Amino acid sequence: MTNSHFKFSSVDAIEWLQKPITVRGIVQHGFGRGSRDLGTPTANLPGSLLDDVHDAERDGVYLGFGRVPKYGRRVVKMVANIGRNITYGDVIDRVLEAYLMADIFDPEFYGEEMRLCIIGFMRPELKFNSLQQLIEHIQNDVKVADAALDLPRTEVYRTHTSLID
Ligand code: RBF
Ligand code: MG
Fold first, then answer.
1. CB-based burial of residue 143 (10 Å sphere; 0-12 exposed, 13-18 middle, 19+ buried)?
2. Distance of CA 11 to the CA centre of its chain
3. Does the N-terminal or the C-terminal CB of the chain have fewer CB atoms within 10 Å?
4. Which residue in 143, 49, 31, 43 sits closest to 87, CA to CA?
5. Which atom in ligand 1 lies closest to the alpha carbon of residue 142?
6. What number of other Cβ atoms are within 10 A of residue 80's Cβ?
7. What pLDDT, in 10s, does the model give residues 83-102?
């Protein structure tokens, strides 16, 4: 029995949050596994930043906007996995890994502040049978989030105070 029946995320299946989850933290080192090799370099924040956030209780893939003040005022689309990378099974602490959809960033901005405004839930974190499956789902998540974050309903969050102030 394989897990290849996992459904891919889609714009229609996004659960939009009643109010955004705002996160602000200092980017940490990852696991040296190189999500960059997966084509999606991620910036990591401690999952403990979300300990008291009811809307972020579920491990899974979320979408929204992000900003790294070091790189100026620009706000960019982002998709994030919140969880323990259960495909690998070696991550003990919950972690928030954000993929920022901008090629202007040096992916290794460790020690810099990152701000996120999370506005929707896309799918639960899944335990895949192969790296290939994980990569295919991540690539699909990025495509879906990229399209979803063009929807008019998301526009107002590009200038959310949590990102700008
Ligand atoms: N890891 C998993 O074990 N299961 C997932 O379903 C999963 N989905 C992800 C979705 C996105 C958009 C991103 C950026 C990462 C995801 N990851 C997932 C985390 C992935 O395992 C991790 O980024 C790499 O292992 C590098 O640390
Ligand atoms: Mg990372």
1. middle
2. 15
3. N
4. 31
5. 12
6. 28
7. 999 998 888 899 999 999 98
Q: Decide: pTM greater than 0.85.
A: yes
- Please tell me the residue having the least CA distance from ligand 1 atom 27: 35
Q: In angstroms, rounded to a whole number, what is the distance separating the alpha carbons of residues 9 and 85? A: 17
Determine whether the shortest distance from the Cβ of 70 to ligand 1 is under 6 A.
Answer: no
Name the closest-CA residue to atom 24, ligand 1: 35
Check if the beta carbon of residue 22 is closer than 8 Å to that of residue 45: no
Identify the bridge partners of residue 78 per DSSP, sorted by sequence position. Answer: 64, 100
Tell me, what's the pLDDT at 36? 65
Q: Is 97 a catalytic residue?
A: yes
The DSSP symbol for 28 reads B
Output phi, psi for 47, to 5 deg.
-65, -20
Say if ligand 1 is within 6 A of residue 31 CB: yes
Amino acid making up residue 92: I
Per-residue pLDDT of 12-54, as tens digits, reads 999 999 999 999 999 998 766 656 677 888 999 999 999 999 9
